[in-house]
């Protein structure tokens, strides 16, 4: 997402979004105490470096940089111009920087727990952006110019990680609007099936990542759990698609929430058990005397996996389909242990 170094002069790549280029510029200017020369910015920062001409024909790129400076300042970011003491009045010797002390949040600004949770989710989506491969290459390039980036820039990297291996290639496919293939295991099917899809949105719902996409084989929209994607996500060469409609992420989350509210399960939990403590926190209704709670859920297979792990601490009262799904998992566990005992004997 951020600063990337072009591998050669004049190399042209796909158009970088404006917001991506501005963010890359801000991060680069925050990374240095002494500032960067215009030539250093144009040759190293993502959004400029892809179009930088080493022969010096960069008039259009310089005008773009001038407009970007104005845009950054209009956003309230304190971009400074520092004149060289050895070359006063020489515009080519001007250095640009963003003083980190002026850009930091004021000490009196505090976040509520809910606000911190939202920031944490945003950080999880960002996925360590300021320490990505693009950023590391850019910082390495700056060091090669004799500029040592300030360590505090590393503080911009979120500490949250996305566990599913499919997340990053899907994010890249979304950015590039590129069709992808992957093998997907759907509960109830004997093996994973190959899916070819146009990714439209990746959303977090009930602490699980979901991909909403147009399934080319099924000729319709489908939503997939990233945790059920088996193996690599591979792009389909030369296959792209139109940008998804605005607000699609909100629509997908709303649909998942509606699905969750339509599904409810009544569970009998053992008093004082781990199941009572953990599941009770999510209960929408409960009868403490009877030891019964009601939960909403989105995916029956995911809930069945969780309930089976509690063993005798929880019993499904309804629906019958969920009760049978839990029984199947417990039978599979019992059979596996029987087989293990027989082999050992």
Which regions contain 5 or more consecutive residues with pLDDT less than 50?
Answer: 1-14, 127-132, 149-162
Our measurement of the CA-to-CA distance between the termini, rounded to an integer number of angstroms, reads 57 Å
Instruction: List the domain count as a whole number.
Output: 3
Strand content: 15-25%
The ordered string of helix (H) and strand (E) elements is HEHHEEHHHHEEEEEHEHEEHEH
| Radius of gyration, taken over Cα atoms and rounded to an integer in Å | 26 Å
List the helices and strands and how they pair.
Layout: H1 18-30, E1 36-37, H2 38-44, H3 59-74, E2 80-82, E3 95-97, H4 100-103, H5 113-126, H6 133-144, H7 167-176, E4 178-184, E5 193-205, E6 208-215, E7 220-225, E8 229-240, H8 248-262, E9 264-269, H9 274-280, E10 285-287, E11 292-296, H10 300-309, E12 314-318, H11 320-344
Antiparallel strand pairs: 1-3, 2-3, 4-5, 4-8, 5-6, 6-7, 9-11, 9-12, 10-11
Helix pairs in contact: 10-11
Describe the structure.
- With 345 residues, the protein is an alpha+beta fold.
- The chain has 11 helices and 12 strands.
- Strands 7-6-5-4-8 form a 5-stranded antiparallel β-sheet. A 4-stranded antiparallel β-sheet has the order 10-11-9-12.
- The chain has helices at 18-30, 38-44, 59-74, 100-103, 113-126, 133-144, 167-176, 248-262, 274-280, 300-309, 320-344, and strands at residues 36-37, 80-82, 95-97, 178-184, 193-205, 208-215, 220-225, 229-240, 264-269, 285-287, 292-296, 314-318.
- It is elongated.
- The chain folds into 3 domains: 18-156, no CATH class; 167-244; 263-344, no CATH class.
């Amino acid at each position: 997402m951020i600063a990337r170094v072009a591998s050669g002069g004049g190399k042209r790549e796909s158009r970088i979004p404006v917001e991506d280029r501005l963010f890359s510029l801000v991060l680069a200017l925050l990374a240095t105490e002494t500032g960067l020369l215009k030539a250093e910015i144009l040759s190293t920062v993502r959004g400029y470096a892809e179009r930088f001409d080493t022969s010096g024909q960069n008039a259009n790129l310089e005008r773009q940089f001038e407009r970007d400076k104005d845009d950054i300042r209009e956003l309230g970011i304190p971009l400074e111009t520092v004149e060289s003491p050895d070359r006063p009045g020489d515009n080519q010797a001007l250095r640009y920087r963003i003083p980190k002390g002026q850009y930091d949040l004021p000490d009196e600004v505090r976040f509520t727990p809910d606000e911190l949770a939202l920031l944490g989710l945003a950080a999880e989506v960002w996925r360590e952006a300021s320490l990505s491969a693009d950023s590391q290459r850019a910082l390495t390039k700056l060091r090669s110019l004799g500029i040592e980036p300030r360590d505090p820039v590393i503080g911009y990297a979120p500490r949250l990680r996305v566990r599913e291996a499919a997340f990053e290639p899907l994010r890249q496919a979304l950015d590039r609007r590129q069709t992808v293939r992957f093998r997907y295991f759907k509960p109830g099917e004997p093996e994973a099936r190959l899916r070819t899809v146009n990714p439209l949105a990746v959303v977090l719902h009930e602490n699980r990542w979901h991909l909403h996409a147009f399934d080319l084989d099924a000729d319709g929209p489908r939503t997939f759990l990233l945790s059920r994607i088996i193996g690599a996500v591979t792009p389909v060469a030369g296959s792209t698609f139109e940008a998804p409609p605005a607000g699609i992420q909100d629509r997908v989350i709303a649909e998942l929430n509606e699905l969750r509210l339509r599904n409810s399960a009544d569970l009998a939990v053992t008093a004082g058990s781990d199941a009572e403590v953990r599941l009770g926190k999510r209960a929408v209704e409960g009868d403490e005397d009877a030891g019964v709670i009601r939960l909403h859920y989105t995916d029956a297979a995911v809930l069945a996996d969780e309930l089976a792990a509690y063993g005798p601490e929880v019993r499904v009262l309804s629906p019958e389909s969920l009760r049978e799904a839990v029984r199947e998992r417990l039978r599979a566990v019992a059979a596996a242990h029987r087989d293990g005992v027989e082999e050992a004997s």
